[in-house]
Amino acid sequence: MKRFLNYLKPYTLRCILAPLFKMLEATFELFVPLVIAHLVNVGIEGGDKKSIIVSAILLFVLALVGMVAAITAQYFSARVAMDFGKTVRSELFKHIESLSYSNIDNQGTSTLITRMTSDVNQMQTGVNMILRLLLRSPFIVFGATIMAFKVNAKVAVYFIYILIALFIVVGLIVVVSIPLVRRVQERLDDVTLHTRENIVGVRVIRAFNRSDEESEEFHLSARLLMKMQLLVGRVSSFLNPVTLIIINTGIACIIYNGGLLVNAGDIDKGEVIALYNYMSYILVELIKFVNFIITVSKMFASARRVANVMDIQPDITFGDQEIEESSRPHSVVFENVSMTYKGSKAPAISDVSFKAEEGEVIGIIGGTGSGKSTLVNLIPRFYEATSGSIIIDGKDIKEYSKKAIRGLCSVTPQHSVLFSGSVEDNLRMGREDITKEQLNAALKSSQSESFMKDKEGGLAYVASSGGRNFSGGQRQRLCIARCFAKNAPIIIMDDSASALDFATEKSLRQEINSLKKNKIIFVVSQRIGSMLSADRIIVMEKGHMAAVGSHDELLKTSDVYREIYRSQVDEQEVAS
């Protein structure tokens, strides 16, 4: 938690003022029983109407000033908590953005979402409660005890006995509850994971008629969470009845002994009432303090989990070499490049070497799991090569800054991703200064123009989250349009035409050929048709380069390519 204290430094004044105003409120609150005792003894028992009026006015002033102090404290603590949560969430998001694909894969998306939302919210709540209750509750408990001794030391001795018993009970409940609370958070992670997987994969689940099985798995996970929460609830539920028994025993002792002392003339009735009020204060504040400790323990658990994510060192470090926006690389060279995913024994790609030059379209084809996507994902450094070098214009890509290397590349990912917002906003992601004419040209080149004409508002048409209001083929074409709109010198199209019909793909191939001047274009696909526009084709098999050449050359020299071709030749003949 120490690392997060730095995020509170900009709000130091508020952090001081919030508990101070809470202490001020508590101080006024401790004087209320004394005023009531005076009201009873002098005003009511003595029949002094003036004293009754003065006491009533004083009680009103104490309540009013206490209310102002409480509202002020609440304002400062809430502002600090909100600003703290915003800062932590922003820093965490920034850190997650710096992580590589491999880092994110290892953590899991659902875990990172939980850290960003639930855990940061828990930290925010904890900070709020610390500022409000850390000083107030102990101050009230010990203050009420001291004031009780001021009223009558003989009866106030019972306060000591009650406090000892209460601290023992509260301590036991807290010691048992804190580990259980941590286990609840772990179960919550599991439920979040199941929820995300079921929502994201709902179509697959329904297609394979797995709804009942997945529902059962989710219910099992939810039941385990419920059992842990019930266990925490049962342990916590002992707090109120046990503390009430102890407090009521104390109150009974105070009233009984107070009554004896009243009869003996050693104490006034108002003082007995004051002692009763102070005992009630202790009960309320101890219950608050237990809830405070449980909340703070949740905060520390969440802080550790957030810190664990922030402690992850990105496994990709970038250089400081910048590139002018107008510069165009002349070549991309792979030299004996291998890459193994974390936790995998076999390399995804092994000893890959080739050179792609400006003005070339490089096709990459192979079966599922052959290493096609891995190969192209190494160029923008989404993943890091285990060995070997990737050279762009004579410099290892490790020398380039993150902005430089990502600025050189324009990528259409394997899975089409559109963000909520207008189509224009989506297309401008890689290049904000692009003109409307250039946007329309990108739509035309990507074969998106035909269906976008039918959309109300054209470029202003709003895409839903994930682009769900577009078909699969339309999403792919808009992602291709976004890639073209960036106008980067290196274009990577990772199986980006898989949802397109052959006629549309043929038109797209022609556009790719017209765009290749001053560019290096990589086209990844399992379709032979996508390779026909390539100047050279790299055939991947089990992570190795099986062959390199043109379409006609590979038909003669590569068994793997011929096999792929023959499996698709009928479809290709129809397409041509």
Describe this structure in words.
The protein is an alpha/beta fold. The chain folds into 2 domains: 1-311, ABC transporter transmembrane region fold; 331-567, Rossmann fold. Helices cover 65% and strands 11% of the residues. The chain is built from 21 helices and 12 strands. The chain has helices spanning 2-5, 12-44, 49-98, 101-107, 109-133, 136-151, 153-200, 202-207, 211-237, 239-264, 269-310, 372-377, 402-408, 423-427, 436-445, 449-452, 472-486, 502-515, 528-531, 551-557, 559-575, and strands spanning 331-339, 349-357, 361-366, 387-392, 395-396, 409-412, 421-422, 462-463, 490-494, 520-525, 536-541, 544-549. The strands form 3 sheets. It has a 6-stranded mixed β-sheet. It has a 4-stranded antiparallel β-sheet with strand order 2-1-4-5. It has a two-stranded antiparallel ribbon with strand order 7-8. A hairpin with a 2-residue loop joins strand 4 and strand 5. It is elongated. The two termini are 64 Å apart. 34% of the residues are buried.
In summary, what is this structure?
The chain has helices at residues 2-5, 12-44, 49-98, 101-107, 109-133, 136-151, 153-200, 202-207, 211-237, 239-264, 269-310, 372-377, 402-408, 423-427, 436-445, 449-452, 472-486, 502-515, 528-531, 551-557, 559-575; strands at 331-339, 349-357, 361-366, 387-392, 395-396, 409-412, 421-422, 462-463, 490-494, 520-525, 536-541, 544-549. With 576 residues, it is of the alpha/beta class. The strands form 3 sheets. Strands 6-9-10-3-11-12 form a 6-stranded mixed β-sheet. The protein has a 4-stranded antiparallel β-sheet with strand order 2-1-4-5. It has a two-stranded antiparallel ribbon with strand order 7-8.
